[in-house]
Amino acid sequence: MSNLKSEHIPRATIQRLAIYVQVLESLRNDNVEVISSEHLARICDVNPSQIRKDLAYFGEFGVRGVGYYVQDLNSSIKKALGVDRTWNCALVGVGNLGRAILRHKVFKQRGFHIAGAFDCDPFKIGEVVSGLEVICSRRLPEKVKELNIEIGVITTPPERAQRAANYLVDANIKGIITFAPTRINVPDHITVEYVDFFHHFFNVAFNITLKDRED
Amino acid sequence: MSNLKSEHIPRATIQRLAIYVQVLESLRNDNVEVISSEHLARICDVNPSQIRKDLAYFGEFGVRGVGYYVQDLNSSIKKALGVDRTWNCALVGVGNLGRAILRHKVFKQRGFHIAGAFDCDPFKIGEVVSGLEVICSRRLPEKVKELNIEIGVITTPPERAQRAANYLVDANIKGIITFAPTRINVPDHITVEYVDFFHHFFNVAFNITLKDRED
DNA sequence: GCATGTGAACAGGTTCACAGCT
DNA sequence: AGCTGTGAACCTGTTCACATGC
C-alpha cells in the first residue's frame, strides 16, 4: 500500500526534504502562505528542479502557475516521510552528549520523543535527567515494550557502542541512530544511521588548508 | 604548492576519509600493521576500489602486492586533509549542546581544540565550563586574534545563529560549523558546514515507515 | 603472486527544457 | 501567463577490470 511513485529514493533527497521541512516551518511562522520552487530553492541553496524532482518521488503537491501552499506542502512531506507522528526513542548512554540530547527540546518538537534513558553505570542509574530516571541498560527489552519504543539512540563511548546495540537489538528495536564514532554490527532488517560530525570539522579544516596552500 | 592530483575532491570522499582515519586509528590501537583495501573496505562497508580511488586523489600510499601500512596511511590521510595539526576553535552559544561539546574530550583528541567559549547571555558570562570562562560574544574579534582561532562553532538557538555568524565573520574567522537548524549568510570565502542530525532521524523514521507500509 | 593504481564502463543523481495545468 | 511536473541530456561519483610494480 505504498504511495511511492518510484522504488528507491536517494538518501540525498531525504536529507533535502528534512531541510525543506525546516524552512517551511519557519516560513509558516512568518505567515508565508504560498512559495514557488524557485523561491524555496534560493533559501535552501539548491536548484529549483531539484526540489520539484524530490517532491515528485512522493506525489504532486504543487499548483501549476501558483506554487506550493506552505502549510500543505509541509504536512505532505512529513506524512510522506512518516514524521507526521511521534516516534518514541530510547537513549542509551547518559554522558555529556546524552544529557544534551535529553535536554534538547527540539527533538520532542520534531516528533522524536526520548521516552527512556539507559546506562549501565550504577552511579548513573536512578539519577533523574530532564525528568527521566536513568534505567539499567539490561532492562531495555521490558522498557521498550512498555514505553512503545521503536528507535534507539546510542550516545555511549565508542567501546560500549556495540554492547548498547546488542541490547537494543534484543529489545526488538526497529532502527538505531548512533553518535559513537565506531561501526556497529546489527541484523540487516534494522536501519542504522551513523551521526558523525567530525567529517564536518575535517571538511572545514580541509577547505581552509586548500585555500591556504594556494599561496 | 598543492600536491593534489586532481582539482576537485568530492565531499563524499572527504566524509569517507574521515571514516578511514577513525578505523585506522582503532586498528593501530589493536597493533594491526598492514591492511589491504579489501579488508579496510569490509570494515567501512564500502567498495575496495572506492578506497583506492579516494586515496588516489592525494597520492600513492600503498605498496603493491602488500597493502597499506596502517600507521603510515593514517598520517598520510591526516596530512592530506590538513588535520595533522591542532585547529583552534571558538564555540558560540553555551547551551546544552555547547556544554556537551566543550566537555567532549574527543574534539581535542582529534585536533579540534575549543580555545574559547562565547555567549551573549549576561548570566552565562563569567561562568566556567570545562575549564573555560564564558566570554561575551562581542569580544570575539579580540579573542580570536589573541587565541589564534580559525574555526567558529555555532551552538546557539536558531534565532541567534545569524548574529553569532556575524560576530565570527567580523572576527575574521576562516570557517564555520553550525549546529543550529537554520541557514546562515556569510561571505563566499568562508566555508560553512551545516550539522544536521535530524535528517538521520528522518531517515530512520522513513525506513521503518517504508518497511511497515509494505504490509 | 598479489594488492595497488587507474582508464574505461556504468550507475545514479542533477540540471535542462519544455509540455501540461490552473 | 506562470509555475509545476517530467522525460531527456548531462554530469559526477562509483564500480569494474586489468595493467603495473613490489
From TrEMBL, chains A, B:
Entry similarity comment: Belongs to the transcriptional regulatory Rex family.
A GO biological-process term: response to redox state
Protein name as annotated: Redox-sensing transcriptional repressor Rex
Keywords of the record: Cytoplasm, DNA-binding, NAD, Repressor, Transcription, Transcription regulation
Binding site for NAD(+): 93-98
Keyword Repressor listed: yes
Functional description taken from the UniProt entry: Modulates transcription in response to changes in cellular NADH/NAD(+) redox state.
Domain of life: Bacteria
Taxonomic classification: Bacteria, Pseudomonadati, Thermodesulfobacteriota, Desulfovibrionia, Desulfovibrionales
Residues annotated as domain CoA-binding: 82-183
